[in-house]
Amino acid sequence: MARNRQESMEENRAKLIAAARKAFADKGYAASSMDALTAEAGLTRGALYHNFGDKRGLFAAVVEQIDTDMANRAKAKGADAGEGWPAMLAEGAAYIEMALDPEVQRIVLLDGPAVLGDPSQWPSQNSCLQVTREAIEQLMKGGVLKPVDAEAAARLISGAALNAAMWVAASESPETVLPKAQEAFRALAEGLLSKPVP
């Protein structure tokens, strides 16, 4: 019986996140109504309050889901580029490119900071930061990167990619801004290399 209740709660949570993800992408956070969200999911406001506390809590869950998807997509692009430094650069460039995705643009890069505050404090961003720090530590051990503080380097690389993506998302011409943002990101990141790129 308890297992069925747990499954039902997880199903309700997934329904609310799916409905909210669509509504926040289509209308934005401010214009999305909790009544419309819960009706779309076939649930009550009580289910929303029980699972997420309020609309902001539901939005945070949606942002975390999308941000996790983004990290996985960037990781896949990095793996396609190889290992080590090329993978790290490819992941950063891929993250910035995701700013062209309307859902990512609106929910994560535009509404996210306005509703949830500083992205560096989001749990999903902290998880990405940890992975980046570990990769940087390995690159430093291999002599690829200068021996600077690994956490500082990870925060600067992650912050540069995030801010570049936010710039792309907020610009009037994202497709024009994207290559500029990626080129500048690459140039900044290459400043950490122990030897210049030939």
UniProtKB/TrEMBL annotation:
The segment(s) forming the HTH tetR-type domain are: 10-70
Q: Which InterPro entries match?
A: Homeodomain-like_sf, HTH-type_TetR-like_transc_reg, HTH_TetR, Rv0078-like_C, Tet_transcr_reg_TetR-rel_C_sf
Q: Which UniProt keywords apply?
A: DNA-binding
GO MF assignments: DNA-binding transcription factor activity; transcription cis-regulatory region binding
Q: Which domain of life is it from?
A: Bacteria
Which SUPFAM superfamilies does this one have? Homeodomain-like, Tetracyclin repressor-like, C-terminal domain
Which residue spans does the record list as DNA-binding? 33-52
The UniProt transmembrane annotation reads none
What is the name of the protein in this document?
TetR/AcrR family transcriptional regulator
Q: Which organism is it from?
A: Peteryoungia ipomoeae
